[in-house]
Amino acid sequence: KVVMTFFTQYGKSTSGSAKPQTAPAAAPPTPSSSEPAPQPAKKVESDTANQGIHTVLIIEKANIREIIGQRIPITEYPFIVGRNLPSLMNENGVSRRHAEINFDRQRNVFTITDLKSTNGVKLEGAPIAAEVPYEIKTGTRISLGQELIIKFEKS
User: Fold this and answer.
1) Helices marked H in the chain — which ranges?
2) Who contacts 76 (Cβ-Cβ below 8 Å, separation ≥6)?
3) What confidence category does residue 155 fall into, taking pLDDT thresholds of 50, 70 and 90?
4) Can you give the pLDDT at residue 90?
5) Element (H, E) at 23
6) 11-67: pLDDT as tens digits
7) What is the pTM of this model?
8) Three-state DSSP class for 7?
């Protein structure tokens, strides 16, 4: 067993023997005025709810019949669609992180991006390129893989 003790300063006591004294605690570093303190990334919450607009995905076609008709509320942006969602966890051909839905507040536009999924994304039956955002509107049908079709809705 090794015990190590370090002292940063030594001082003399009144009796003349040297005894250790602890150094004062260092003050926490303060950020320089030129560098702002790091802030957590802002999550783009569904501001559309504040405007009376709610967005959902409605499952129209699926391998598992029991989930057809289910509504998946989009609660925040970006919103990842894939087997990460409980409703889609058993869907064949759907990647865990298949696509991402975003909302651009400045342009008031919803977009979907294929996240390099194995089986691709189609909008209204037309395939889209991976990692490129495509505008979607209410009523747009989104195919994930060969079997799953979901409809984007806002109200």
Assistant:
1) none
2) 43, 44, 45, 46
3) confident
4) 95
5) none
6) 444 444 444 444 444 443 334 344 443 333 233 444 444 354 689 999 999 999 999
7) 0.67
8) coil
CA distance linking residue 46 with residue 24, whole number of Å = 49
Phi, psi of 81 (to 5 degrees): -110, 130
Query: Is the backbone of residue 17 left (phi > 0), alpha (psi -120 to 50) or beta?
Result: beta
CB neighbour list of residue 111: distance below 8 Å, 6 or more residues apart: 101, 102, 103, 104, 133, 134, 135, 136
Using alpha carbons, list the distances in angstroms from residue 137 to 5, 60, 66: 68, 16, 26
Is the distance from CB of 91 to CB of 147 less than 8 angstroms? Answer: yes
Q: How far apart are CA 136 and CA 70, in angstroms?
A: 20
The one-letter amino acid code at 50 reads N
Count of beta carbons in the 10 Å neighbourhood of residue 45: 12
Q: Is 143 helix (H, G, I), strand (E, B) or coil?
A: strand
Query: What type of residue is 67?
Result: I
Q: What is the pLDDT of residues 63-99, one digit of tens each?
A: 999 999 999 999 999 999 999 999 999 999 999 999 9
